[in-house]
Amino acid sequence: MDVTARSKDSIELQIASRNTPNNGDTLFSVSDFSGGNYHSSRDDTTLRRLGKRPLLNRSFGFMSSLGLSCSVLLSWEGILVTSVPTFLSGGSGGVVWAFLIGWVGVTSVYASVAELASAAPTAGGQYHWVAMMAPDSCANFLSYLTAWLTTLAWQAIAITTSYSVATIIQGIVVLAEPSYVAIPWHTVLIMWAAAVFSVLVNSTTGRVLAKFEGLVLILHLTGFFGVLVPMVYFAPHNAPSDVFTTFTNNGGWSTQALAFLVGMPTVASTMTGADCAVHMSEEVRSANIVVPQALLYTIFINGALGFAMVIALLFCISDVPAAVAAADTMFYPFLQIFESAVKSTTGACIMAGVVLVLAIASCISTYASASRMMWSFARDKGLPFDRHLVKLNKNTLPVYAIMCTMGITVLISFIVLGSSVVLSALLSLLLAAIYSSYLLACGLLLYRRVTGAFHPYVPGIDEDPIHSGQLYWGPWKLPEPFGTINNIFACLYTTFLLFWSFWPQANNPSPAELNWSVVVYGSVIVFSIVWYVVRARHYFKGPIKEV
I need a surface site. Which of 100, 155, 249, 289 has the fewest CB within 10 A? Predict the structure, then answer.
């Protein structure tokens, strides 16, 4: 058989399996030169310097990566869901200023994440960075803990988006036909349908998925105006003082400041998940430049759209009791706000339909990122059944990891039949887990930064095997001293947000109102530590050097 006819996978595997000592070919393969794709060749060389074989096709560019990140964040769509609970506990002023502070903080965090994504663009993301920066004595353990937190966080995001799709559909049906009662088993079946549809789209080809994400970017931007303009145009407006300077303390906290701080993580969560582009790095062309750019453009664009939607929503809320009551029948108060604003049930359903379409797109994008994170962790022998989860189909897609993500969603969805409160308790792991992974990565980056462990970026450094074990900055980096100052602020903000994310929305809460995230998060941490000591330390050695 002619060598040019061989699949990329077989060539990679053949080269990686050679036992010849000092084999100079281990950093290169025929795929570097196939198709004349210069950028893919350099990307694959960078990946080999990090110890990984390039097995996935690089179908994503800047626009598709940006679309992926925007669709997962769903900033302006998410603020429709999270702003009302914070509005009730801290007032409209609390929502506005919590969003602004969160926007500044998350920009700082993702700027540090972007620096790491430029230095080491791998699907493993945070746990790979932790492994390469942590001291040797604890590198494997910290990498293992970070990998579990990140993997579980992304599985929680996948479940959350499926649940959101299901409940938005049911909410729209209730809005259009008030006699309909949202039955839990209906929710479960719609969750399954959303999961199956996400799997089908993710199992096509990387090129189809990339084009789809480019389309989602357009829908994300145009849909924003499709919802904002009619709401602002038709609804009566509140006074500016009511929006910007009204603070309340409906949670029964001892001070107004405490009420504000407790409500802040709920609003800040709408800007979480931009690292999805990181976990797709091995499918992005010019990843060490495109991924950092996509991260920051995502935060800037979604921050602006989210803030505009916050202001519009708070100006247009006219009947607060009715909006709060709608949460019991239609799941989401924004559905009642839409109807109250445009004075038309049909118009409100159309506006909600825009949000629904983007929620479905978010579900597809989330499955892509969650499956790549799972695939990467399995590649390093960190998950059960890793030999199956790492398998790729003929289109070089991790279909088994995609199917496993669907299976987890299906299993967890049965909890809805018992109590949605229990499901919310499990999914409360999301914010704490993902920000813990950010804190570990940003903290170690700060440690290596101030100790001078990172070498300056040198174009072409990836082509020299002698540098494969050293830390080098990527082509995207914040200039000093701003980089160090930002890194410090990112660590402080992440710690701050983690602390307040464990607090309930009200003082002396009932079991249904209690924030169970500290229990779920603590259980995951304890289980990970115990399992690592008992079993995982014998087989998990951090990111495996495959070349």
Answer: 100
72 is written with which tokens?
Answer: 């997962």
Token pair, residue 243, equals 């929006």
Tokens of 501: 């994310």
Which amino acid does the sequence have at 357?
A: V
Rounded to 5°, angle at Cα 90 from 86 and 92 = 75
CA distances from 352 to 154, 167, 171, 330, 434 (A): 25, 12, 9, 12, 29
Q: Which two tokens stand for residue 438?
A: 């950010």
Contacts of residue 77, Cβ cutoff 8 Å, sequence gap at least 6: 355, 358, 359, 362
- Closest Cα partner for 440 from 80, 130, 26, 91? 130
Neighbours of 448 (CB within 10 A): 16
DSSP 472: B
Q: How many whole angstroms from its chain centre is CA 174?
A: 30
Cα–Cα distance, 29 to 3 (Å, whole number)? 11
Give residue 237's Cα distance to chain centre: 34
Per-block average pLDDT, block size 10, for the chain (547 residues)?
A: 39 35 34 42 85 90 93 88 75 88 94 95 94 92 95 92 94 93 93 96 91 93 94 90 84 85 84 90 93 94 93 88 83 90 93 95 95 94 90 91 95 87 75 93 95 85 60 91 95 94 83 80 90 90 83
Query: Which letter does DSSP use for residue 515 in this model?
Result: -
> Distance between CA atoms of 268 and 271, rounded to whole angstroms?
6
382 φ, ψ (degrees, to nearest 5):
-95, -10
Residue 309 Ramachandran class (φ > 0 left, ψ -120 to 50 alpha, else beta): alpha
What gap in Å lies between CA 140 and CA 124, rounded to an integer? Answer: 14
Length of the chain: 547
Closest C-alpha to 333, from 318, 343, 344, 311: 318
Nearest to 245 by CA among 314, 309, 312: 314
Helices (H), 75-121: 75-119
pTM: predicted TM-score of the whole model, two decimal places: 0.88
